[in-house]
Amino acid sequence: MTRAAAGGAALGPSVTPEDLAELMRAFNSAAGELGQTHEALRSEVSRLKSELNEANVRLERSRRLAALGEMAAGIAHEVRNPLAAIALHAEMLRDDLGASEEAQTAGKILRAARELDGVVGDVLRFARELAPAVTVVDAAEPARRAVATCQMLAVAAGVELSVDAAPAFEDVEVDAGLVAQALANLIRNAIEAIGEEGSAELGRVGISVEVRGEMVSYAVTDNGPGLPEGVVERMFNPFYTTRQTGCGLGLAMVQRIVDAHGGRVDAASMDAGGARFVLTLPVRAQAMVTEGVA
To answer: The pTM is what?
Structure first.
């Protein structure tokens, strides 16, 4: 062996199999951590994309509703004045005709005019700007208000109403009046659906309230006929209805209220029968206003 070779061998220690094994373990550990980080990033990107898509859908729906509301409000304003004149003259005619058969006909015209005026009023209310007046309330408060609002209607229809929530619940930041209005609309729909079914079974409508993390959910369930196939995709559109009465704004108003709170609404038929609507809202208020017409 030459001096140069001997000197080169002396410059550093030889690498043992144990060193290589340790190096491979460190490499594999680093690669595993990088893989986990990559998967976490992919999951986060997917979640953010989903949230962005939902926000874009809400924004586009808000714009469509604003345009539709503006058109409907213009038509409603034009209809209301002549409608008021019809009602006034029908009332005068009824009073002048006394107890005659013609007076009954005038009375029918008056009732129809008043019903139509109610529809016009619903359209105008739907078209107005919706700005939630957020306060801190017990999470179950909107549900209790909704049940109190619909109690007489439920009794008349022979339907039992209930709220599943603890007396002292967590506080949430919502417009309790608007959320109660949305829940009351769902309760009324459920009561009407149960009445249309004509079942001998006692009708039941319940609201359950649950707070999970940063979200609060209000689930309205009933034991009615459930939702007809193909209806869920369209039922929240303004003026869409499957019933003989009503102008189809109740569920559209529910959607507007939920959008104004930055939440979502889901609907489905249940396997055991009946329908289930779930409003999911942020526990903490979000700065959102649904566009409309003042």
So the answer is: 0.65
Q: pLDDT tens, 172-191? A: 999 999 999 999 999 998 99
Domain interval for residue 144: 135-282
Residues 109 and 154 in one domain: no
Q: Is residue 10 part of a domain?
A: no
What the block records as the tokens of 208 is 């359950």
Rg (CA), the chain: 31
Measured CA to CA in angstroms, residue 46 lies from 50, 155, 214, 219, 266 at distances of: 6, 48, 20, 27, 21
Neighbours of 255 (CB within 10 A): 22
User: Among residues 129, 130, 201, 143, which one has the least CA distance to residue 172?
Assistant: 143
Question: 184 burial class (0-12, 13-18, 19+ CB within 10 angstroms)?
Answer: buried
In a domain, 198, yes or no: yes
Closest residue by Cα to residue 201 from 253, 243, 159, 138? 159
Direct distance between the N- and C-terminal alpha carbons of the chain, in angstroms, rounded to an integer: 98
Residue 219 phi, psi (nearest 5): -105, 120
Dist. CA 280–CA 140, nearest whole Å: 13
Shared domain check, 146 and 58: no
How many CA atoms lie less than 13 Å away from 213 in the CB half-sphere? 2
Using the 3D structure, point to which of 102, 127, 152 is the last residue of a domain: 127
Q: What is the pLDDT of residues 86-96, one digit of tens each?
A: 888 888 888 88
Length of the chain equals 294
